[in-house]
Write a structure and sequence with these properties.
- The chain has about 375 residues and is mainly α.
- The chain folds into two domains: about 160 residues; about 160 residues, Globin-like, CATH 1.10.490.20.
- It is built from 15 helices and seven strands.
- A hairpin with a 5-residue loop joins strand 2 and strand 3.
């Protein structure tokens, strides 16, 4: 869930903000083998070209002058039937378009780019000869987050005020569907420059990375909790990929409403949600409380998973594999600290599953999300 958040200027916060920004860098090593690549990238990164890219997306996609635009709402309603009707979908779509307009406006304000060579460090400590090229597509992630915050909160409010409270669980769904449509309109170099912004928008309404950074203000540099989170944040994509591959092996025939686990769209959502689980765990560690998991992550899972055909057995296995993978990568001196929160996560999901044995279980959502909303959920 997205909450109004401001990050303070202190060393511990700045450390995590840097790690947060690195999530949106792009490895361009393979593209750089094309001798024309840099020239095309430099041209696409110019203010004039960025303006043309933004105009193309606004005119052809966001306001429906392209015939493909009509397929996005239809696909969305088929994916979550009886939850989002056409009227609500149109209202939510209008707010989403405002978010995209703002993103494209910020995108046009950027000029140039920073491509950084990164030398691979071997596990033995030796330096390999392999050098990857990383593009920093979002130069100031805090500015982007702050400028989008009010629009995204208004977008979230449309979900919160819907008659069916399960709608709040689909904050990322419209952005996920819309991002695909937008990406299909981009050239290869435009994708390199703009896709990090689209990824940011989809993650910002679901994954509390900014709140993780803000919570670091409670800790001094070198504190056990901050050191643990600093070590683990860069590993989030690798951990998520490992767990996802393991799930593929264990559940090759599993299908939700959106498709099988191996379907590219399902894979994308799984990897994003595995990152979300990790972010909530680290938020709990830095806030010294399991409340974010209990009051946000668990209710979201309760709302969303049954609605899209995911059973609790899959959620239990997903959570267990993720916890095992995280625990296997933590240094010995942090094991006990981590255990307090992984056990708390396990207990929170266990209690939710017990309560859901009775149809019509009442789940309370914190007052920060509206007016101390109560979500009436069916099993």
């Amino acid at each position: 869930m997205l909450l109004s958040t401001n990050t303070s200027k202190c060393p511990s916060v700045e450390r995590l903000v840097k790690l947060w920004a690195e999530r949106y860098t792009v490895d361009v090593s393979s593209l750089s083998k094309n001798p024309k690549f840099y020239g095309e990238l430099m041209k696409a990164a110019s203010p004039e070209a960025r303006g043309l890219t933004a105009a193309k997306l606004v005119n052809n996609v966001l306001y429906g002058t392209n015939h493909q635009a009509g397929t996005q709402p239809k696909s969305l309603y088929e994916y979550i039937p009886d939850i989002i009707d056409s009227h609500l979908g149109q209202r939510i779509n209008q707010f989403a378009c405002q978010v995209y307009e703002k993103v494209l406006d910020i995108y046009q304000q950027q000029s140039g780019m920073v491509v950084t060579p990164i030398t691979t460090q071997m596990s033995t400590g030796n330096v390999s000869n392999q050098v990857s090229l990383s593009l920093s597509a979002i130069p100031n992630i805090e500015k982007l987050a702050n400028e989008l915050q009010q629009l995204l909160l208004k977008y979230q409010d449309q979900h919160v005020t819907a008659k069916d409270w399960r709608v709040v669980g689909f904050l990322t769904t419209l952005f996920n569907f819309s991002n695909k449509l937008l990406i299909n309109q981009l050239t290869s170099v435009e994708k390199v420059l703009l896709c990090p912004y689209l990824k940011f928008v989809e993650e910002q309404v679901a994954i509390p990375w900014q709140r993780v950074c803000a919570a670091a203000a409670k800790h001094q540099l070198g504190s056990p909790a901050l050191t643990l989170v600093e070590q683990m944040l860069p590993l989030a994509p690798e951990i998520g990929s490992t767990v996802y591959c393991r799930l593929l092996q264990l559940f090759p025939d599993h299908r939700s409403l959106r498709g099988g686990l191996s379907d590219p769209d399902v894979a994308h959502s799984c990897l994003r949600d595995l990152d979300m689980f990790q972010a909530y765990l680290w938020l709990s560690v830095l806030e010294k409380s399991i409340r974010p998991v209990e009051q946000e992550l668990v209710p979201l899972c309760v709302m969303v998973m049954p609605s899209v055909g995911v059973k609790w057995g899959m959620i239990d296995k997903w959570k267990r594999l993720l916890v095992d993978e995280i625990e296997s990568r933590v240094q010995f001196e942090h094991e006990l600290l981590l255990l307090n929160y992984t056990q708390g996560m396990e207990q929170a999901f266990f209690e939710a599953r017990k309560r859901l044995g009775d149809q019509g279980e009442m789940i309370k959502i914190p007052s920060e999300f509206g007016e101390n909303l109560i979500f009436h959920l069916s099993s």
